[in-house]
Amino acid sequence: TGVIRYVVLLITLLGTWFLMQTYFDQRWIAISLRSWLGEALLPQHKCGNQKSCPQDYFAFKIISGAANVVGPYICFDGIVLMSSVKNNIGRGLNIALVNGELVPAKSLFLFLMLFSSDINKLDTFLAEIKHGTVVLAASYDDAATKMNDKVRAHFVELGSRHVNNLGFRDNWVFLGAKGLKNKSPFEQHIKNDKETNKYDGWPELLEMEGCVPRKMD
C-alpha cells in the first residue's frame, strides 16, 4: 500500500510539472515549487531574499497568487506563514498577522467568506487587530469584488496607499502595521487589464521582498 501511494504521488507531481511547463512560464514554475516545498528550497538569506537584513530588521517576502492556479506565499523572518504546502491559503485575500513572538495569529480567506455574504466578519477581524501587529496580505484570483468602504478604511489605517483602487482580479501585496503613523513603503498593486494582462484574465503575479524594522512607526 505504501509503495502504491508513493507511485501515485510521483505520477501526480510529474503530471502537474508537465502541465505547468506547458502552460506557464519558468518564473511562475519556480515560484510555485518554492511555495509547495516551503523552506526546503530557501537559500541562506531568510525567506530566500537576495540580501540579508540588518540586525534590527525582519526579512519578509510576499508573492501574490498567479491567476486562479498558483496560490500566494507569505514568509516572515525565515518562517513560511502561508503557502500551498501548508494548505492554509485560499482564493481571495490571504492575511497573516505577526505580533510579539512571531506567531501568525489568524489567516482569513475573503473569497470563501463572500459566498456566505458576510463581509462583516472581515470588518471585525481587521478592527480587532492589536496595536503594533504587523499585517501581511496577498491577493489570489479576486480579492476586491465585495470589499466595502469600511474594510478598505481599515487597510488605509494600516498604511495602504492603493487599497481604495483595488478592483476585480487586480493583484495586490501589502505589509503594514496597526498604529502606523505614515504610509507603508511595502505595497505593490497591478491592475487587471485585458490589454496588458500577462495571463488570460489576470495580470502578472507580484513578488515583494525586503526588510521591515522590528518596530514600525
From TrEMBL:
Domain of life: Eukaryota
A GO CC term attached to the entry: extracellular region
Compartment(s): Secreted
Domain ILEI/PANDER span(s) in chain numbering: 91-179
Keyword set, alphabetical order: Disulfide bond, Lectin, Membrane, Secreted, Signal, Transmembrane, Transmembrane helix
Keyword set includes Transmembrane: yes
Annotated Pfam families: ILEI
GO molecular function: carbohydrate binding
Membrane-crossing segments per the record: 6-24
Similarity comment: family membership: Belongs to the FAM3 family.
The protein's name in its UniProt record: FAM3D protein
Species name: Geococcyx californianus (Greater roadrunner)
Gene giving rise to this polypeptide: Fam3d
